[in-house]
Amino acid sequence: MATATRDELFQLGRAYLSLPGTTERRAIRERVGLSQADLAGVLGVTAPALSRWESGERVPSRRLLLGYAELLAHLSALNDERPATTPGVVTTSAEQGRDATKP
What we know:
The protein has about 100 residues and is an all-alpha fold. It has six helices and no strands.
């Protein structure tokens, strides 16, 4: 295994510390409607490997840790950008963009 540089170690440390807790990892994936197989395919791993990461049983390798942490951050941000909806209520794109404070 190649020796990591100081900057690479800092980058890995930041990625590891940025990982959400195990419950949140699964919740992020589910909120955007992805299966474990979907996410695993994007990362080039198996669904069982992703399951072990979500449960905290295993931690991704160096090579995969950076991609996994970045992907979770992007998925979480996407979820934060989604408009709030009420279950059972369908809104049009025009209604979603309208300022609710104006008639």
